[in-house]
Amino acid sequence: MSSNDGNLKFWKKALAVFVPYNSRRRVFLKMVLQLLNHPRQLVYYFRLQKLKRVLYYFNRGGITKVSQILDERLLMGADLRLEVKLKKIINSTQITDFPVLSFPSSATPVVSIIIPVYNQFSYTYICLASIMENSSEVDYEVILADDCSDDLTLQVNDVVKNIRIIRTPKNYGFLKNCNYASSFARGQYILFLNNDTQVQADWLIPMVRLMRENPDIGMTGSKLVYPDGRLQEAGGILWKDGSAWNYGNGSNPALPEFCYVKECDYISGASIMIRTTLWKQLGGFDERFTPAYCEDSDLAFMVRKAGYKVCCQPLSVVIHYEGLSNGISISEGLKAYQRINQSKFYEKWKNELEKNHKPNGEDVFLARDRSQLKKRILVIDHMVPQYDKDAGARNVFMYTKIFIESGLKVTFLPADYYPYQPYTAQLEQLGVEVLYGNYYFKYWKEWIQENAHFFDYFYVNRPHIAVRYIDLLKQYGNGKLIYYGHDLHYLRERREYEVTGNEELLKSSEHWKILEYQLIEKSDIIYVPSTYEKTVLEQAFPEKVIRSIPIYIYEKMETKKCPNIKKKKNLLFVGGFGHPPNIDAVLWFANEIFPHILISYPDIIWYIVGSKPPQEIMNLQSNNIVIKGFVSDEELHSLYQSCRLVVVPLRYGAGVKGKVIESIYEQCPLITTPVGAEGISTLEGVFVVAAADKSMADTIIRLYNDEDVLQNMMSKSPEYINTYFTKKQVIDVLGLDIGISDQKYN
Q1: CATH number at residue 119
Q2: Quick one: DSSP state of residue 563?
Q3: Residue 45's pLDDT is what?
Q4: Ramachandran bin of 449, using left for φ above 0, alpha for ψ from -120 to 50, beta for the remaining angles
Q5: Is residue 352 domain-shared with residue 239, that is, in the same domain?
Q6: Which residue of 264, 334, 355, 609 has the fewest C-beta atoms within 10 A of its own C-beta?
Q7: Which residue has the higher pLDDT, 551 or 314?
Q8: Helix crossing, 489-500 with 580-588: angle to 10°?
Q9: How do the residues of the chain divide into helix, strand and coil, expressed in percent and rounded to 5?
Q10: Given this model, what pLDDT does residue 41 score?
Q11: Distance CA 256, CA 77 (A)
């Protein structure tokens, strides 16, 4: 070792002693060093409001949060970027310098976009241009609410076609102007948009979709971004004293904490959308807040009082030139009403603020999405569930949705911290915060240390993932720890050893058994999908709470006329090839069973569906074997409808097989092995169990042409699914541990 290496180690040890990792001194040193390296950037970034928050966390020991504030700006977050498009402002006093904008006309608009204006035509024009460019997926009308402007706004008809211009008889001020213009709206939704904004691509349809799909949401709003790309707000927080925070102000708007649909206390009125019926029911903005300020916060509280939610829609991105309309000084002009109206707001909503809101700056983790009013669950798995690629991912996705539907606030931690799309965005649109990106990859331990105590439940999947997190969760959290292993890995590998004779598998099986049993000892509740595995574990752990839960969750199936078996032909296998038992099953069936079937049915085709097929599977392609690989859910449904028989020829494995349950749900006749049928009821006769040997070929040959038996199997599918695999059965189990009601599923 060189002297330089020795010196480096000495100084590292000295640094660790005098400036411990994750200490205030360490973060302060980091701040100083970054200030020296990036003086302009940090001085620009740490404005007064941001510095107050940094000091708040610093004084209260939120060291990781301070570190994140530094990292997200200078070190981390470089992998996450929000692309924005900013149109150039046309600064001219001649109306002829503005190109003509011609909006589409609609007799039945879905959205009425109301833009309150008083002068500032250059900004109004660019706002209109951005709307016309980025709103094509929704029928809308634009209402320009002109509050007695005396600039080029008077000539707007010359350059903007097919919009409605509503002019007040006298200068009403912002609030009354909005109320007046709203009486002319024809849309199902009213969207108030400041004229000092530029809407971004696909900004409108996400808000409409959110409201259509969630009738309990009364008002939504956009993620607001400054022209320089920094976040202005992803929803707002109101504290017990009536003061407010723009959540995330100054941060990178692409960070995951700003990218999920969240309930929020209020949304700044620069871009908010409300149901027209609700707006009329509430009587519009409360005119006690005339001429402006706090009317948006008050509206949000009125919406909640009427029984609706207020949510921020992060897919709707709007650039906002904050302060352009009313200035930034609260001592003069319209801005002076901000302090006056804040007092009025506090008096109106004092009881609500005292009851359900936190003191200023306290527990931002909860206040940002109003989750202090809910039970919270942290779901951990190896990655964001790609539910159309394998059974385990589909299971995790289904249960995550159940948690959401049951009123839990869900946070999802994927152990690879990667935002696979479109799956991550789909979770975020359901209201799930997904922890991804460089920051969480680097600081996941610190995040757990600081936030685990906020969660009531931990739902941890798979042994090789659970072992990484379980001790930290128990050390820093007080929530109930639920372990779901998907199957007993040790049992699966021991069975593979029995088939292959590979001694390494036997050693690996023992390793998994030790690991899985340790996890069971440390967990409060253990879930398994298989009734067989439940029995095995109950014998090994008689004092533990072990429950069997459905692997898949379906809506109740209606008993209807099932497909005509005479129109179905060919065989089908479905299973992801990241799972070794599926590779073995397909190769074994192709080499040992399928050749015998071809003798009786030379024209039969066997479709093999599953993601990531290895070369040895691809090599099976022939006139009678079609390797489909990954297919969409829609194409898979078509294959289930057209194929006569699903084969699941597993020789080893463990747990309940998702492909078996899916086949039953799709009402497609099924034949499998004892391993494939393990852990579920076989008494109803909805599928056939055959030995994993050459006799399976004879069974398939006989069954393939027995249309009465096949038709009978299909007809029994709905009752089987309704008995074992609906939301009602899931809630019956979850309700024992998570305290959620099954009322909505009865």
Answers
A1: 3.90.550.10
A2: P
A3: 45
A4: alpha
A5: yes
A6: 355
A7: 314
A8: 30
A9: 45, 15, 35
A10: 45
A11: 10
